[in-house]
Structure formats: C-alpha cells, structure tokens
C-alpha cells in the first residue's frame, strides 16, 4: 500500500506539499498540484483518515444511532443522513440500539471513540437528564424525533399532535362519526401524542372515542392485525380506524378483509409515516406523510454546524409538520 512518502518521492516534492494538495491547501503551483494528483492516482494512495483523527481528535464523520435500521422508517432516516453527509463530504457510521438504553449509550460511546463529533440520535428510552448531559459532552449531538425543552436547539422533531388532529379531521370531513384506534404499545411519546391530537379534534366536533376502541400492540403488521381483531371482538360499531403507523394500518386492513369487511367501503383506514409500502399495498393507503428523510438531512447539517459552533442554533427550534396524503383506503360515509 502506497504511503505519503512514496507519493512525495515519485512526485519529487516534500510530504508537506503532498499534504497540502490532498487538503486543497494553498502555496502549491498548479503544475506541481497536477503532478502530485497524477502520482496519487497512479499509486492508488489513500490518506490515512484514522491517523489524522488521532492528531486532530476529530473526523469528518457523521454517526447515526437508531433502534433498528432494518425497519423501513429508520432505513429512510439513515438514507437522509447519508445523502446529506455525502453532500458535505462527511463519512457515515451507523449503529443499532435495538430498543435498549444500554446499547444506545454504548453505540454513542463507540462513535466518540472514533472521534465522531457529529451524531444523529433517535433515542427511544434514554431519560432526558442523560441526553442533556450527552449534549454537553458531544458538540454535534442532535436528537431526532424527540423534543427536550432544555436542549431544544438540538432537537429535530415532528408535531405528532398536529398529525393526529389532521387525520381525525379528514375523516370527520368525510362523514365519519364512529372511530377506532390501533396504536403502539411502545412507551415513547409518539403514540400518545397522536391519540391526544385525534381526541382533541373529535371533542371539538362533539364526538368521542371510546376507550374500548383503542387497542395497543406491537408497531408492525402483525400488531395491527391483532389489535384490529381485538377491536372487532368488542362488538362496538366503527367506520374508521386511525393507525399509529403504516405497518399497523396494513395489518388492520388484513384483519378487516379476513373478517369479511371491505376497505374502504365498510371501514376506512388511515396510516402514519407514508412509507413506500403505503403506495404499493391494496388499497393504496391514505396516510400522514412523515418527512423523515427531510428531517434527517436537516439534522445532519445542524449536527455539522453544532460541531463547529455549539452556540450556532441558540434560541432556535426545529419543528416539522406531517401532511395528509389521500389515496384509496378512505371513503366518505353516505
């Protein structure tokens, strides 16, 4: 493997000159710069970024920690981070926390060991005090999909209450009066905020949501199916289901079809997230678009800025809003 000394020897320059060429530094003539670049290419030389990190105690590296990258939502989040990282000439390190606080903190420690100063963290269960302390220690730490008032300038988050409100109002405008909910059993804030938003809108329209028609399960297709079966077993009528996410919504559709009910003719279903699967399932899913890729890109640029100046976002908040995408899983009540 070629070294910087090999490049310098073949090009007939000093290692300092090679270093300036690599980093686009000044004080190098154009002819010399071109000759050094040609030698670098011919020898296949690659700068030792790890060694540079040991000297500078930092790297042009973005870290991202999510609960489970294999899930569509978190894969989309990681894709948004990667795209923005490339645009800013940063490399990407990714890690799963597997929904465990210990694993989450270990992943952050590992990124810090690699001198990673910019980290995008989707934290499910770490307490606020822990995250506030981390923000003091990691210059470019950004919390995505969670709001903590004490470090609001580092939080990129979605207004889930507004999402619950809009989806409920859309169904009300379609004539629905009898609602059911399939929501996540996970104890983060998103499920309760979305239900809270829907309940507020229902109350403003002199409607209510029976506690018996709110069922919790795992936030996946199987969970949506199980929760919908439990709803049907209650025997209480409903014409619309609000689902915590698109996967639960698809599970709900499966359970309704298995029970001999048509979607949307008998029961309308609304999801949340607007994953790619929402566009290819049948019926195509009406859902709330979660701008996760845009949020991830924004969070990446914010993390880079914070790593350079921890006060650059003081006094700012970074709130995104979901938007309704109407497809085929909702029908008007006649």
Low-confidence stretches: 50-57
Q: Output the helix-strand order.
A: HHHHEHEHEHEEHEHEHEHEHEHEE
Strand order of the largest sheet: 2-1-3-4-5-11
Per DSSP, the total helix count is 13
What is the share of helical residues? Answer: 40-55%
Rg, please? 25 Å
* Strand count: 12
- Beta-strand portion reads 15-25%
User: What is the correct CATH architecture of the largest domain?
Assistant: 3-Layer(aba) Sandwich
For the record, what is the CATH homologous superfamily label of the largest domain?
Response regulator
**CATH domain topology of the largest domain:** Rossmann fold
Counted up, domains total 3
CATH first level of the largest domain: which class?
Alpha Beta
What's the end-to-end separation, in Å?
74 Å
Return the average pLDDT rounded to an integer. Answer: 91
Class by helix and strand content?
Answer: alpha/beta
For the largest beta-sheet, the strand count, sense and barrel status come to: 6 strands, parallel
Layout of helices and strands, plus pairs?
Blueprint: H1 4-11, H2 15-22, H3 30-43, H4 49-56, E1 61-66, H5 72-87, E2 91-96, H6 101-113, E3 118-121, H7 128-137, E4 140-144, E5 155-158, H8 160-173, E6 179-184, H9 189-204, E7 214-217, H10 221-234, E8 240-243, H11 246-258, E9 268-273, H12 277-280, E10 286-289, H13 292-308, E11 318-320, E12 323-325
Parallel strand pairs: 1-2, 1-3, 3-4, 4-5, 5-11, 6-7, 6-8, 8-9, 9-10
Antiparallel strand pairs: 10-12
């Amino acid at each position: 493997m070629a070294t910087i000394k090999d490049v310098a020897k073949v090009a007939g320059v000093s290692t300092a000159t090679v270093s300036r060429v690599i980093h686009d530094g000044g004080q190098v003539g154009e002819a010399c710069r071109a000759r050094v670049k040609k030698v670098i290419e011919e020898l296949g030389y690659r700068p030792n970024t790890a060694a540079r990190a040991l000297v500078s105690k930092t790297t042009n590296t973005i870290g991202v920690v999510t609960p489970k990258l294999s899930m569509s939502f978190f894969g989309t989040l990681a894709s948004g981070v990667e795209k923005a990282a490339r645009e800013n000439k940063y490399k990407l390190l990714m890690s799963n926390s597997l929904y465990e606080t210990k694993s989450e903190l270990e992943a952050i420690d590992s990124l810090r060991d690699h001198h990673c100063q910019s980290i995008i963290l989707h934290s499910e269960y770490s307490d606020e005090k822990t995250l506030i302390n981390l923000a003091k220690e990691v210059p470019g730490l950004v919390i995505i999909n969670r709001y903590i008032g004490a470090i609001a300038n580092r939080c990129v988050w979605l207004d889930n209450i507004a999402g619950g409100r809009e989806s409920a109002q859309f169904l009300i405008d379609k004539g629905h009066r009898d609602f059911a909910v399939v929501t996540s059993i996970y104890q983060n804030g998103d499920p309760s905020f979305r239900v809270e938003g829907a309940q507020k809108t229902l109350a403003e329209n002199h409607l209510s949501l029976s506690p018996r028609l709110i069922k919790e399960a795992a936030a996946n297709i199987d969970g949506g199916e199980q929760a919908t079966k439990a709803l049907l077993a209650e025997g209480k009528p409903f014409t619309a289901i609000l689902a915590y996410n698109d996967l639960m919504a698809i599970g709900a559709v499966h359970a309704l079809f298995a029970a001999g009910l048509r979607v949307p003719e008998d029961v309308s279903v609304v999801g949340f997230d607007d994953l790619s699967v929402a566009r290819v399932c049948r019926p195509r899913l009406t859902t709330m678009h979660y701008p996760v890729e845009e949020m991830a890109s924004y969070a990446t640029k914010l993390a880079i800025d914070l790593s350079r100046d921890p006060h650059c976002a003081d006094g700012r908040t970074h709130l995104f809003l979901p938007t309704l995408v109407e497809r085929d899983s909702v029908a008007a009540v006649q």
